[in-house]
Amino acid sequence: MLLKCEQLMKGPGPSEAVVRIVTRDGTEEVIVDTSLIHGETLDVGPLVTRREGLVLIELPRESVSGRMRVWISEEQFANAHEVA
Question: What is the pTM of this model?
Answer without folding.
Answer: 0.86
